[in-house]
Design goal:
Blueprint lengths: L2 H13 L2 H8 L3 H15 L4 E4 L2 E4 L1 H24 L7 E7 L1 H18 L3 E7 L2 H9 L5 E5 L8 E9 L1 E5 L13 H5 L3 E3 L5 H9 L9 E3 L3 H9 L4 E5 H9 L4 E2 L9 E8 L6 H14 L1 H9 L2
Parallel strand pairs: 3-4, 3-5, 8-9, 8-10
Antiparallel strand pairs: 1-2, 5-12, 6-12, 7-10, 7-11
Helix pairs in contact: 1-2, 1-3, 1-4, 2-3, 5-11, 5-12
């Protein structure tokens, strides 16, 4: 069983598209199809259904995907083990969206330190458009960021995680007692948002574009400062729910009931296609694993 075919299967499954997989793998679409066909013939099952609505993974495909991911992870561990007596040295520059930094940076860094004790990690937090530019300009080597619809073709990009979003306010806010807030209701309050040109900021621009009276939107690049501003009653905000879960449980903040459910905010990881080191790929796998198993991450961050 060829690892390249397994990697192609994983890429198509994650992206939900043969065309997108061909772009990221820099292979022709017929070549991607040939790899999947070869894997299907070897396994004796159909992995994808392609019709006018797009590409859908089959039940067999969904069942076999975790095994393919494990095999690829094992192969990468084997490559890393070859150099076990010569641990990788140097510096890896990592850019991370502030939301992910707030939620996961401690667990991630502790885990990376254990795996690569001789690597120095340079960490920077910024908005996704800036992180993409820094990747392209060789200013950073690896990024954990908000998933964007348009990504340069010279970057490897894969889904990482996604979080539901909710509108939050203090219990004293006039909107707190409303059974169902409309967009007009939300626009009556100052709104706190992530920085201009970020995906959440663009979503707010689109959301309120049809209103005659546009809301006042204040932006802040720091999640910690943004949360403090909300707690102090400066305004309301649309935030990924994990950022405010504890504040909701403590009743410092309340989730507003609204008539239009906001979309989930998706995140991805990325590095340059011309970076032939195994380290970015290993960091990507560990990032996804930690974020998908919060209990494990909590133990890492507390040193248990």
């Amino acid at each position: 069983m060829r690892l390249r075919n397994l990697s192609t299967f994983i890429k198509v499954a994650r992206l939900g598209s043969f065309h997108a997989a061909s772009q990221q793998l820099h292979a022709s679409q017929p070549a991607i199809s040939a790899r999947i066909i070869a894997l299907e013939e070897e396994l004796g099952v159909q992995l994808f259904i392609r019709d006018k609505s797009g590409t859908k993974i089959t039940a067999w495909g969904s069942q076999l995907l975790p095994y393919a991911e494990k095999l690829i992870a094992i192969s990468q561990e084997m490559k890393a083990q070859v150099n076990h007596d010569k641990p990788q040295k140097g510096t890896l520059r990592i850019g991370i969206a502030d939301t992910l930094a707030h939620l996961w940076l401690s667990a991630l860094l502790k885990h990376w330190q254990e795996l690569h004790p001789l690597i120095s990690f340079e960490l920077t937090s910024d908005v996704t458009p800036t992180l993409i530019r820094q990747l392209q300009n060789h200013q950073i080597d690896f990024a954990l960021m908000v998933a964007e619809q348009s990504i340069p073709p010279n970057l490897v990009v894969d889904p990482l995680c996604s979080y539901p979003q909710c509108w939050v306010a203090t219990p004293e806010n006039p909107l707190a007692d409303k059974a169902n807030c409309t967009m007009q209701d939300l626009a009556t309050s100052p709104i706190l948002s992530f920085p201009r040109d970020s995906r959440p900021w663009h979503y707010l621009q689109q959301l309120f574009s049809a209103l005659n009276e546009q809301p006042v939107i204040h932006t802040c690049s720091s999640v910690a400062n943004l949360l403090n501003l909300i707690r102090q009653g400066v305004g309301i905000a649309l935030l990924p729910r994990p950022l405010v879960e504890q504040a909701l449980l403590n009743k410092e903040l309340i989730a507003l009931s609204i008539d239009t459910a906001p979309p989930e905010l998706a995140f991805c990881y990325s590095w340059r296609l011309d970076d032939d080191r195994t380290l970015p790929s290993l960091l990507a796998d560990s990032s996804r694993a930690i974020m998908q198993f919060p209990a494990q991450a909590k133990n890492l961050s507390t040193g248990k």
